[in-house]
Amino acid sequence: MNFSEKLQILRKNKGLTQEALADKLNVSRQAVAKWESGQAYPDISNLIQISDLMSVTVDYLVRDQQCMMNVTGGKDKTDLDELITFRLEANVNTYAAFMNETDSTRLDSHDFRYTNGDYTYHDTYVGGEQFAGEEAIWEKGKAVYAMNYLGRVLEKEFSGNFLKEALRAADHKMPYRGPEYYQSGEYTYKCSVNGDFTWFQGYEEIYFHDKKVYECFFHGGVMK
What we know:
By secondary structure, this protein is an alpha+beta fold. It contains 7 helices and 9 strands, in the order H-H-H-H-H-H-E-E-E-E-E-H-E-E-E-E. The protein has helices at about 5-15, 20-25, 30-35, 45-55, 60, 75-90, 160-165; strands at about 100, 110-115, 120-125, 130-140, 140-155, 180-185, 185-195, 200-210, 210-220. Helix 2 crosses helix 3 (about 30-35). It is globular. The relative contact order is 0.14.
């Protein structure tokens, strides 16, 4: 998804017309129209204003998520694609889908495990409204991928069911947590990532209308 597409989605999610957005940014409606059609690009001051208004990072606005899966590092692209496919498969067969919960591996932890062929996925976390955890993947008993996460519920309107719904919508362009953008009813999920699947850092958040109700930081990559 490129900048022009993101801007249209964010503007409409805020319930703003092009003219209303232009007024808030002190630019012409024609400028906004050109941004959304891909004919022009805002300068950095406008990007910062848009970032603040839409409650997203500048990095999220300018980074084309389709370009984020560039493969670097030691793993062959075919192997990496297979690993990503399995991670997405495990995602919809464990926590996000209320499936395959297993015995605790640590004191008071919540654990999920999924195996298919040579791959095994395990997710373990502690806490509730403030939580921390790790998911990892093994291939033939050898660790090949891991990701740590730390998050918290910010407001009472948070919905765990919506978070799980958003996580199930992850795809090959954004296989880390959930998709770049997901909306259902009164809730909106946003996720931004720096890096690629071999080495990345990210941030996800959920809004109820315009109120941020949840956030989570995560980082991970391929094991060598």
